[in-house]
Amino acid sequence: MTPSLSPIRSHHVAVIGAGAAGLVAARELRREGHSVVVFERQKQVGGTWIYTDHIEPDPLSLDPTRSIVHSSVYGSLRTNLPRECMGYRDFPFILRSGVTESRDPRRFPSHREVLTYLRDFAKEFAIEEMIRFETSVVKVSPAVESDGGDGIGKWRIESTENEMKIRRDEIYDAVVVCNGHYIEPRVAEIPGISSWPGKEMHSHNYRIPEPFKDQVVVLIGNSASADDISRDIARFAKEVHVACRSNAADMYIKQTGYSNLWMHSMIERVHEDGSVVFQNGKTISVDVIMHCTGYKYHFPFLETSGSVTVDDNRVGPLYKDVFPPAFAPWLSFIGIPWKVVPFPMFELQSKWIAGVLSGRIPLPSKEDMVMEIKTLYSTLEAQGIPKRYTHRMGMTQFEYNDWLASQCGCSRTEEWRKEMYLTTGVRKRTQPETYRDEWDDHHLVSQAHEDFSLYA
Ligand code: FAD
């Protein structure tokens, strides 16, 4: 079917979350002429970058009734992307002239610097005036049949403000979900764990290394968090062992530069006497197992009668990782892809959603969107890619971004940004200890700053 353009219209749009995704969504929606309300359950903007000493009462974060601590950021965290690459395209992550006090000028700065940058962004574009802080969205459901009658879907949003003192029940034309995806932990299945006497926790609840003094700790995972946290803890712990299912079954390597840090294959099983047995045959007595095993997509407020589901970490069906065809364009998601450079992608997804909602950018028919999603799923299956990797992008992110850019009439991803992402990835693998402080891609930094002069 040929897509048809409707007249340009502005809509009343709810954005859930004021992290990096929600902030840029709000900006782009307002720029496009929509009226926007952002719901944010915390007291300030920044989402996951708001560091807190607090952790959840359940160290594995499995109890559904626990009080949620949103941030997973730990004290020593520095970004794993260089700031030039990481920032929004038209609001570079640089130190602006005259503002240097209390800033972290490093290329891979601390989490505080990212939060400051997001606050600056919110201030520059007067986003806060659209935000209702300390307001949790508790339910989002279709108010009338989506796309019925006038072609506009309506959504009922129920929210609570100031710890339930105010309850609201409102109708919006469209909802953009930006609630973050690092809150609901995944944990590894370990044979024998129910009778193992040690302490289990998820990296979501890791903040500082001192409590691990003189302990024997096993971390499970091969992500950036496992890399960083194992090294952080090794400064205090007696021994640190990293187990990972993608490592060869016989792997047992002492990490260069450390006397107490080893890489292993996966855990085979654990025993009542506190021991942990690895697939490589090694057995050690362990105090703590930390799961650095990532997170699940979670939309506890969303009621779509099964039209949008999360199945083995596949959110679907979603056209281009953004629109569920059954509700397009009135329901959309920002930030679903992973292994990406998030902020510039959020920016492009936001521009696309804003333009599609106003009718300036056409969407294919529902049938065509559904067909494309089915083709994607069959291709993944044929390639033997598990469902849980549906939204993993890596290098394909740039093709995806360029497609979004073409829809929105924006320029493609800058060559320097792609190359910087690639060279940083290589350095991370080859010099994990020093990649944040030693580099040789100075020419890319210069090219980035040439581009930034357009915006500074
Ligand atoms: P979030 O920042 O999580 O924001 C979501 C917001 O939604 C929160 O403010 C939350 O309070 C709010 N919210 C949720 N549910 C509700 C509700 N029901 N009602 C109202 N409000 C709600 N990215 C990089 O680019 N570089 C890095 O170096 C990097 N390092 C990372 C390290 C760690 C440990 C983690 C966890 C992530 C890292 N990331 C990094 C990825 C990071 O998550 C993204 O960069 C980005 O900040 C995500 O933004 P978001 O807006 O999607 O989610």
Report on the structure:
InterPro entries: FAD/NAD-bd_sf, Flavin_mOase, Flavin_mOase-like, FMO-like. It is an enzyme of class 1 (oxidoreductase). One of its GO terms (molecular function) is monooxygenase activity. The protein has 456 residues and is an alpha/beta fold. Helix content is 25%, strand content 20%. The chain is built from nine helices and 21 strands. A hairpin with a 4-residue loop joins strand 5 and strand 6. The longest helix is centred in the last third of the chain and has 17 residues, at 342-358. The structure holds flavin-adenine dinucleotide (FAD). Residues 16-22, 39-42, 47-49, 70, 72-73, 79-81, 86, 136-137, 178-180, 182, 225, 301, 335, 342-343 line the site of flavin-adenine dinucleotide.
Oligomer: single chain
- Name the poorly predicted regions: 1-5
Portion of residues in beta strands equals: 15-25%
Q: What are the bound molecules?
A: flavin-adenine dinucleotide
Number of DSSP helices? 9
SSE order and pairing:
Elements: E1 12-16, H1 20-31, E2 35-39, H2 83-86, H3 111-124, E3 131-132, E4 135-144, E5 154-161, E6 166-172, E7 174-177, E8 184-185, E9 199-202, E10 216-220, H4 224-234, E11 239-243, E12 252-254, E13 261-264, E14 267-270, E15 275-278, E16 283-285, E17 288-291, E18 295-296, E19 309-311, E20 314-316, E21 331-333, H5 342-358, H6 366-382, H7 396-408, H8 415-430, H9 442-452
Parallel strand pairs: 1-2, 1-7, 2-3, 7-21, 9-17, 10-11, 10-17, 11-13
Antiparallel strand pairs: 4-5, 5-6, 8-18, 12-13, 14-15, 15-16, 19-20
Helix pairs in contact: 1-5, 5-7, 8-9
The structure holds flavin-adenine dinucleotide.
Family: Belongs to the FMO family.
Keywords: FAD, Flavoprotein, Monooxygenase, NADP, Oxidoreductase
EC number: 1.-.-.-
